[in-house]
Design brief:
Layout: E1 2-6, E2 11-13, E3 18-21, E4 34-38, E5 55-58, E6 63-66, E7 71-76, E8 78-95, E9 121-134, E10 147-149, E11 153-154, E12 157-162, E13 166-168, E14 175-179, E15 182-187, E16 192-194, E17 198-202, E18 209-213, E19 217-226, E20 230-234, E21 238-245, E22 249-251
Parallel strand pairs: 1-4, 2-5, 3-6, 4-7, 5-8, 6-8, 7-8, 8-9, 9-10, 9-11, 9-12, 10-13, 12-15, 13-16, 14-17, 15-18, 16-19, 17-19, 18-20, 19-21, 20-22
Length: 256
């Protein structure tokens, strides 16, 4: 079954709630499995969309799952879902209309807090059998200003990009950021930060383990582990606990 949630403003999911899409139904109509969430996808009558922040807010302990043949996709102007979990064949998340540099992000009438303000994406654990994509593969369309992920990330192909700081971890929990075949993490203008004991693994498909930062790559307790090459490109410092690659390690700049 395919579930589509669209709104003219916010989409709010309470603590402990569960939304699940079952196996595909290829009978009448031929519906695949999948879950599409689009906050602000509908233009409301009599309301100027520029006056609103279309947020997707998921409470702690909420879960979103799709049969292994289906994907989860999220689009919103802010995503606050640090305590939620997501699972399916694929996962993608995009931020619409992120504020330009120097513009103060809004808190959507007090609903958003911390780093999860307008233009930012905060996510929990994501388990996808095929791919995880947060932000576009290139360019700025759909790119979040800040991305904060506070749960384990597991997939075959993982690509996560932000304009400014990209943060993994909550400072205490030990978890993994994984892209078994390919892993690409990028902060275009800011730092890539591994906050706490985070293992970053994958890149089994040749030269496909790369971390790029317009600032620094920081993780005093982070371990980078790959059976292939590891490519690190930072305009600032690279400070990590362990870098272990079977083939080679390439760095653009390394200041310890």
């Amino acid at each position: 079954s395919f579930i589509s949630l669209e709104s003219g403003d916010d989409i709010l999911v309470g603590e402990g709630a569960s939304i699940s899409s079952g196996p595909p139904d290829f009978g009448y109509g031929g519906f695949p499995s999948g879950l599409s969430i689009g906050a602000g996808a509908i233009t409301p009558v009599g309301v100027d969309p520029a006056d609103e922040v279309s947020s997707f807010i998921a409470g702690n302990g909420s879960s979103f799952t799709v049969d292994d043949t289906g994907d989860i996709s999220i689009s919103a102007e802010a995503i606050q879902a640090s305590g939620a979990s997501f699972g399916g064949e694929g996962f993608s998340a995009f931020i619409n209309n992120a504020p330009a540099p120097g513009v103060t992000p809004r808190d959507d009438g007090g609903q958003l807090s911390g780093d999860c303000l307008e233009g930012n994406a905060c996510l929990g654990s994501i388990n996808a059998t095929d791919f995880i994509q947060v932000g576009p593969f290139s360019g700025n369309s759909g790119l979040a200003n800040l991305v904060t992920i506070q749960g384990a990330i597991t997939s075959d192909r993982t690509s996560i990009r932000s304009r400014d700081t990209l943060t993994f971890g909550d400072g205490g929990s030990n978890f993994e950021v994984n892209g078994a075949s390919s892993l690409f993490l990028e902060s275009v203008n800011g730092d890539v930060v591994f906050n706490g004991p985070v293992d970053v693994t994958g890149g089994g498909d040749g030269d496909s383990f790369a971390i790029v930062a317009g600032g620094s790559i920081l993780g005093e307790q982070a371990r980078l582990l790959s059976d292939a090459d590891i490519a690190l490109n930072a305009d600032g410092d690279i400070r990590l606990a362990v870098i272990d690659a079977v083939d080679s390690i390439g760095t653009y700049r390394f200041d310890s």
